[in-house]
Design goal:
Layout (H helix, E strand, L loop, with lengths): L1 E2 L4 H17 L8 E6 L5 E4 L3 E5 H6 L3 H17 L4 E2 L8 H16 L10 E2 L6 H25 L6 H15 L5 H5 L4 H13 L10 H18 L3 H14 L4 H13 L3 H14 L4 H13 L3 H14 L4 H13 L3 H14 L4 H13 L3 H14 L3 H14 L5 H14 L7 H8 L1
Parallel strand pairs: 2-4
Antiparallel strand pairs: 1-2, 3-4, 5-6
Helix pairs in contact: 1-3, 1-9, 3-5, 3-6, 5-8, 6-8, 9-11, 10-11, 11-12, 12-13, 13-14, 14-15, 15-16, 15-17, 16-17, 17-18, 18-19, 18-20, 19-20
């Protein structure tokens, strides 16, 4: 289960839908953060500190922008009402990736009726047992629906988007052996579906209904990228995209999906050539520049990747993923000082992203700043819950940094905090516990 580093299309799509909904819910839009988990099942959930997680399978399943807005509004409704999942481990200094993976695993276990999930300790509105948590979730769905429908109507989205999505899931449930996981963690009764329809019909029509053409185009591209990246067989994915392009030539989403499938299959020259063709055809499309830049990084063409990524950043200045990949391209060209300027801003803005600290530590070492490098790598290991490695790096940082310097004091304080982290059991210890 992997938390995706979102590409610019996905980030922009979720921002365009999520920010107005969060603002309408009186939540700071910049503080509501969306994540995508690489998981083919249909599910979504809200976490503490205004994190909302969507499975990639859900993005592939929604029919249009309004259905996606309905799901996102529902999860924002959970945040607004304080229904988020709260794990005991949230009190520790964990990366958001660790928290998402933990929560996603718990919900997956609930959806599969895995009895072992009842051993997972979940705190919050109800109790820690699986059955109590599931019952608590069921009681709160209607409240989140009411909030969601009102938010959709208030922001110019189709207020029937949530009910439309739920209705299709219910239809799938009737013909499936097992219901979609979304229905087990977000149970849909006939009464609930009818209520959602009724509430949507009662909402006054927004005087300026939000146009959906650009967002649906973005959604089509996101779906194509996810399909290419998650298909079990990249070769089969290539064949499928080519077959669909014969029926719909010139479809940008399908062309981009084909390029991504070629990249996933390791056919980097073909992928780079197709991205270059698309960049020529769409010179103002900064998303395509990003994808060609990533492909060129994988080909070892770092100077060209740097040019692509800088051009993409000029058009998409707030994309952290672009900044990170540019820093990597700079590091590979032995330009650590330029990379460090980017990474220091990223680690300040996203202190729970371990990969930013890892690359910063490498660049600091590359620049000869070994004490600062160990400090950054210590923070990386704290975030990925590697206590012993974190302690070693903090101790090395203290040994190399001047005594009495602010950096030395920081390393000493964080080494002390790392000592309080729970130590991971050795493999033989884990085996004994299972027995």
């Amino acid at each position: 289960m992997v938390v995706l580093a979102l590409g610019p299309e996905t980030t922009e799509l979720l921002r365009r839908i999520g920010e107005p909904l969060a603002q309408a819910a009186d939540l700071p839009p910049k503080e509501v953060r969306f994540h995508v988990v690489l998981n083919p099942t249909l599910n979504a959930f809200a976490l503490l500190n205004r994190h909302i997680v969507l499975n990639s399978g859900l993005l592939l399943a929604v029919r249009d922008r309004d259905e996606l807005a309905g799901v996102m509004a529902h999860e924002i409704g959970h945040l607004k009402a304080g229904h988020h999942l709260q794990l005991e481990s949230l009190s520790q200094k964990l990366s958001i990736q660790t928290l998402i993976t933990t929560a996603a695993g718990i919900l997956a276990g609930m959806a599969s009726r895995d009895g072992r999930v009842s051993q997972a300790v979940i705190t919050g509105g109800a109790a820690s047992a699986q059955t109590n948590m599931l019952e608590s979730i069921r009681r709160k769905e209607s409240q989140s629906d009411r909030i969601a429908v009102a938010l959709l109507a208030r922001t110019g989205f189709n207020p029937d988007g949530l009910a439309s999505f739920m209705n299709r899931l219910v239809q799938q449930q009737r013909i499936a052996t097992l219901p979609p996981p979304y229905l087990l963690t977000h149970p849909v009764t006939t009464e609930r579906l009818l209520d959602a329809r009724r509430m949507a019909a009662e909402e006054p029509v927004h005087p300026n209904r939000r146009p959906d053409s650009e967002e649906n185009r973005l959604l089509a591209r996101v779906r194509a990228i996810l399909e290419a990246e998650t298909h079990d067989s990249p070769e089969e994915s290539i064949l499928r995209f080519r077959a669909r392009l014969k029926l719909d030539p010139g479809n940008l989403a399908l062309e981009q999906g084909l390029a991504e499938a070629l990249r996933a299959a390791g056919k980097l020259p073909e992928a780079e050539a197709l991205f270059s063709t698309l960049v020529k055809q769409h010179p103002d499309d900064f998303h395509l520049l990003r994808h060609r830049g990533v492909t060129r990084i994988e080909m070892g063409r770092f100077a060209e990747a740097e040019q692509d990524l800088k051009a993409a950043i000029a058009g998409l200045p707030d994309q952290a993923d672009l900044q990170f990949r540019l820093a990597f391209a700079l590091k590979e060209q032995q330009k650590p000082l330029e990379a460090m300027r980017i990474l220091r801003q990223l680690t300040a803005q996203y202190p729970d992203e371990p990969r930013y600290f890892y690359l910063l530590g490498i660049c600091e070492g590359q620049a000869g700043h070994h004490g600062e490098g160990h400090l950054a790598l210590g923070r990386h290991n704290v975030l990925i819950q590697e206590r012993d490695n974190a302690l070693w790096h903090f101790q090395e940082a203290m040994r190399r940094l001047p005594a009495g310097s602010p950096e030395h004091a920081i390393a000493k304080r964080e080494e002390k905090l790392a000592r309080e982290m729970p130590r991971k059991p050795e493999p033989q210890e884990k085996e004994r516990k299972r027995r």
